[in-house]
Write a structure and sequence with these properties.
With 336 residues, this protein is an alpha/beta fold. It has helices at 3-13, 26-38, 49-57, 78-89, 96-105, 107-116, 131-142, 183-201, 221-236, 248-252, 254-259, 280-293, 319-334; strands spanning 17-20, 42-46, 67-70, 122-125, 152-158, 169-173, 206-210, 241-246, 274-276, 297-304, 310-312. The chain has 13 helices and eleven strands. It has an eleven-stranded mixed beta sheet with strand order 3-2-1-4-11-10-5-6-9-7-8, sandwiched between helices. The mean pLDDT is 95.
Amino acid sequence: MDPISLLREKAKKKIKKIVLPESNDDRVIEAGHHIASEKIAKLILLGNTDKVHKSLKNLGKYDESFIEIVDPKTSDISSALADRFYNKRKHKNSNKDFFSRLIRKNYVYYGAMMVDAGMADGFVAGASHTTSDVAKAAIHCLEVDDTIGVASGSFVMYARGSGYGDEGLFLFADCALVPDPNPKQLAGIAVSSGRLYRDLFDKTPYVAMLSYSTKNSAGGRLVEKVREALKETKALDPDLLVDGELQADSALDPSVALKKTSIQGSPVAGKANVLIFPNLDSGNISYKLVQRLANARAIGPLMQGLKKPSSDLSRGCCVDDVIDAVAVTAVRAQNG
């Protein structure tokens, strides 16, 4: 069984509750029906109760105990969530009505606040919202983990048949949020990514901080940033297996790693499975190239560095993408 399918099976072992705010999207409804039928996770679908229930019924039988439908316009919990949101963000905006209107209009915020309030274990959105919309809701409602210090977005990448990484399995970051991370932010991204890889797959993360230089083979401001980020990463998590600066071939290919005397004894060179890119340009371009040129599966962006789990979706996502994002978010919730 491939590692993506294993995530769905892992999610079933300890059922978690995930919010899907975009029940107006047919792909989300179909994915929700499948998730409930296969008992991958319990779901809260946000929207008009009658419409959502009818859409689900049109797809056939499913375990109705696995889906709760909440209408933010009529639910008894809406006022309490709005008050909670106001108390969380009033230092930024003292207009209480603003928060009440926002969560009733933008269901991504509503779902995120349900997670913050402990009514659900995570949320998945993005089928009909931009990454910026989802990220703002996640950051404003779930808050950045103080020990990590930065929110970022990673992708699980699986290139079947590849001899690199864990038989084609990788985590790429940051591919979604931080345009030009400073060394401290890059360290937070590296630690978040390593921990996420371990939690999802029960495998040892080998974290490579990528550059156009391998251990002083070149210089410049961008290389210095990665070198400083490596120091910050080791200080943040001394037990993490991480190295840099590494060129991509030095990070991935054992034969290349053996030829370079500067990385002999590296705990990561030649076997990296977590790739940390120096900026958003390189990360976003790389995941999309690998996805298309290697016909790789890409799940994400998975929001990292927050106090509770959430996942974004591409607006061009398919039903399987929604199912996999829910499974990943549920597995993350299992790990607390």
